[in-house]
User: Fold this.
Amino acid sequence: RKEVEQDPGPFNVPEGATVAFNCTYSNSASQSFFWYRQDCRKEPKLLMSVYSSGNEDGRFTAQLNRASQYISLLIRDSKLSDSATYLCVVNTNTGNQFYFGTGTSLTVIP
Amino acid sequence: DADVTQTPRNRITKTGKRIMLECSQTKGHDRMYWYRQDPGLGLRLIYYSFDVKDINKGEISDGYSVSRQAQAKFSLSLESAIPNQTALYFCATSPSGRAHRDTQYFGPGTRLTVL
Assistant:
């Protein structure tokens, strides 16, 4: 079983739409959770960390559900520039290894 | 200037050749990582190092070796390259201390093709 699983998509949405991605993780001891953004052929870059209480950064909202072991990312008012692959990343407390999902592809259409 | 640099950025080589990929960072981070990325498989950890004297195998270390020459440098070697090592390779760093909350900072990647 994979440590982190994501729906690969692709998600094709019109500008202005709201889109949500989910990610599940298998290790209940996981302690840190992140969403990274990766543009085509570029390096992943941190979008936001995910905290237990949930957190918001502008149009982006991340939620963590420890009981069900899933993380979500909500993007409101989608922009063309949001088109990218979104990676869910989980870190366990034991080895400090980061486990990456395969990514969810988003294309925002004019 | 980029905080995490990788050289070369692109490399085409032949089966059986020895290849070294280099990573340097100016972030002052203790922890460094090597990943490979393949379509449909996401990023997979090859090796990681928490300081100069510490080297750890990751998920897919077979066929690879690493050297942590200094805090700022972490090299990945393919002793005898094979075609299924064709991939995009990323180096990453993270600070130590607040261990599990720290994020990673990636280099721009090295695209390696083994013919």
